[in-house]
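B., you asked whether I could sanity-check this one before it goes into the benchmark set. Here's the sequence:
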Amino acid sequence: MYGISRNKIYDISPVYEFIGKRVAMQIGNPYMITNTDKYMEVDPGRGTAPIVKDGRTIVPIGAVITAFGGTMSWEGTEQKVTLMLNDNVIELWIGEKKATVNGREAVLDIAPEIINGRTFVPVRFASENLKIRSCSQRKNMI
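And here's what the prediction gave me:
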């Protein structure tokens, strides 16, 4: 697996893994690498990148969930995003710290939000509840 830098690719351990699929992202970097070693924009043409807010890393979840083979749906009236990966379902509401995970209530440290027209959610909450394994924690890597 390769890591990412603004204009360089360097070797690192995989960052997040789910059933053989891997994704490496870096805070502030609009590119990610998938397990196919495909170096691609997180959100083509928009410059969207993971950020740190209030000490928590939040990511544009659509790109992440798609890279792992899951789906995401949006309910505009409720400002609700639903993440689905295999048998796991997470429902999150923009601006609220409440969530449901497989039908059970849960609380987040930081509320999901919309930035540049994209839904950002806390990466730790999403990965733990979607059963995505963290393989490496390098500085500025998620």
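One thing to flag: The first strand starts at residue 2 and ends at 4. Otherwise nothing jumped out at me.
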